[in-house]
Design brief:
- By secondary structure, the protein is α+β, with helices and mostly antiparallel strands.
- The protein is 22% helix and 36% strand.
- Strands 6-5-8-3-2-1-9 form a seven-stranded mixed β-sheet.
- The chain is globular and about 40 Å long.
- The chain starts with a helix and ends with a strand.
Length: 169
């Protein structure tokens, strides 16, 4: 027969073990990532001028012009229309690096200088890829569109764009 002190100690050890197993299992459930499909917010318009074709292309844009918006970008989006894009605006020209964390759609990244002239295009960025995507040269703007769109529209280095906010800031 086990003394009462040992029975109580065994009960406490058993209860502690069950509690920690339960906590670990519920912790796993809480850490599951959830896919959120954030809706597109039309904040402005962008006109991309293709000099080679003497043609312009109109886009509805979402604008990322603060630290939070630039950090989240197009994360958690499941799709985007071909006439939509996101324009990242930085305070000054500088070397820029992007990655595709939590970004579920393939993108072309169009890097532009402070005059909104295209200086580099990174085509077909892969969804969820954590590899660094560099501007190569100092840039002030990055315009993200669906992967393949720059080829389809014949957008090239040297082309430029202009944009406006729908609601002036």
């Amino acid at each position: 027969m086990m003394p009462l002190k040992n029975k109580i100690l065994s009960f406490i050890v058993g209860l502690t073990a069950l509690t920690s197993i339960s906590c670990k299992q519920s912790g796993k459930t809480q850490l599951k990532p959830t896919k959120i499909n954030r809706a597109f917010i039309h904040e402005g318009n962008l006109q991309l001028n293709s000099k080679g074709e003497q043609k312009s292309h109109e886009f509805f844009i979402e604008i990322a012009d603060d630290d939070y918006q630039r950090a989240t970008g197009l994360m958690d989006r499941q799709s985007m229309k071909d006439n939509q894009g996101m324009l990242f605006i930085f305070p000054t020209e500088r070397p820029l690096n992007f990655y595709m964390k939590n970004t579920y759609i393939g993108l072309d990244l169009i890097f532009a200088n402070d005059k909104a002239e295209i200086i580099h295009i990174h085509k077909y960025a892969k969804p969820l890829d954590l590899s660094s995507i560099s501007s190569v040269f100092p840039a002030m703007y990055v315009f993200e569109v669906n992967a393949g769109l720059t080829d389809q529209l014949n957008i090239e280095i040297g082309d430029d764009f202009s944009f406006n906010y729908l609601d002036e800031k």
